[in-house]
Design goal:
alpha+beta, 12 strands
Length: 281
């Protein structure tokens, strides 16, 4: 986990591109103090695993999915990147919870100065914008920032001179793409309050119960299960249900009962069906 407090600016030293992947070599200084192979480092907000530690930097593999979802694919040799090591258990929580799993990219549409502050307006997709709220937190290229304004299609942040100076924000221009990660807490809340669709009961009993029947008899029982899901157990107990769709095309109730060996066989099948439904919960 990260906090969005950039530790230093690294420099892209080497890029080895594969068919759908890449290996980045990043020059760094400060974060090398205790960096080990296998450690996590946020590079412009993207959590990457250190594959090798060098005297003046480190290497990291970048997968196809990461290249597709982020702005890393646009990096070139000599460009600066924001670097942050994973937060230690006894470290200060200076920013907000940052997973390093970017949601996508945004486009800087406007940069303007306001006295000593610099405003950045960033356009993003609806999938990202729904998690952006005024006074909430957002991660831009790995920097924890507070959202100042929000519209339907973009949002704005106001950065202090210190942040602009020690991060890649100072090098960004209008039209540049940036990595965006929205507040993960909002995603968890959305998941928790979204109703879960109940699985049809039929799926729980098809294997054991319906396997005893075949042909039209099984078709009738499956249709009754659908009726049960919509109207309840008492409706399927009534033989009048056989006069409704989708049973009409099969003939009169007496004919349908014949597929079960007569009325008694049909009623027996219904009782067994009810028992299985109660078992299924």
């Amino acid at each position: 986990m990260f906090t969005g407090i950039v530790e230093e600016l690294g420099t892209v030293k080497k890029i080895k591109k594969g068919a759908n992947s890449a290996v980045f070599t990043i020059r760094a200084e400060k974060i090398l103090d205790d960096l080990k192979t296998g450690d996590s480092v946020a590079v412009n907000g993207i959590c990457l695993t250190v594959t090798a530690c060098l005297e003046d930097g480190f290497t990291a593999d970048v997968m196809h999915e990461t290249l597709n979802r982020s702005a890393l694919i646009q990096l070139s040799l000599g460009q600066h990147v924001n670097l942050e090591r994973a937060m230690p258990a006894n470290g200060r929580f200076g920013g907000h919870i940052v997973a390093g799993h970017v949601d996508g990219t945004g486009k800087i549409t406007e940069i303007r100065r306001d006295d000593n502050a610099v405003w950045y307006t960033i356009q993003a997709s609806p999938q990202i914008m729904k998690y952006i709220v005024t006074k909430g937190s957002v991660t831009v290229d790995g920097i924890s920032l507070t959202v100042a304004k929000v519209s339907e299609t973009d949002f704005s942040i106001s950065a202090i001179p210190h942040t602009v100076k020690i991060t890649v924000l100072g090098e960004r221009k209008e039209g540049d793409m940036v990595n965006l990660e929205t507040d993960i807490i909002g995603k968890y809340v959305e998941k928790l309050i979204t109703p879960v669709k109940e699985q049809p009961v039929k799926s729980n009993i098809t294997r054991d119960f319906l396997s005893k029947y075949s042909g039209v008899a099984r078709e009738v029982l499956e249709a009754l299960l659908d009726k049960y899901m919509n109207t309840g157990i008492y409706e399927i107990e009534k033989t009048e249900v056989l006069q409704l769709d989708p049973f009409k095309r099969l003939g009169k109730p007496s004919k349908i009962a014949g597929f079960f060996g007569g009325k008694e066989g049909y009623l027996k099948a219904i009782r067994e069906l009810e028992i299985e439904l109660y078992k299924a919960g």
